[in-house]
Specification:
Order of helices and strands: HEEH
Number of domains: 1
Distance between the termini: 45 Å
Number of helices: 2
Helix content: 55-70%
Number of strands: 2
Radius of gyration: 18 Å
Strand content: 5-15%
Strand order of the largest sheet: 1-2
Amino acid sequence: MDKHKMIQSLNERLSARRQANARLCRQKREHLEKIVSVISEFQVEKIVLFGSITEPERFETHSDIDIGLTGIKKREISAFIAGVHDLYEKA
């Protein structure tokens, strides 16, 4: 394979990977809507989304959803985690 074809092949694979990652990021953002519905059951002052989901070009198959909550009571954290866990158990 000549140099031009190798570069073209690599660019095509990179483009396909970026498109797949963007689709995955959109799917995870849909999951966020469900997670926010769980969050709404608790008194939370602020929701902070951070990490690779905020930058789709960095989001990959192994990426997770990073969420920070302020104002949630310590005694409610376990219930919140269980609520999010239940979303995925039902899926």
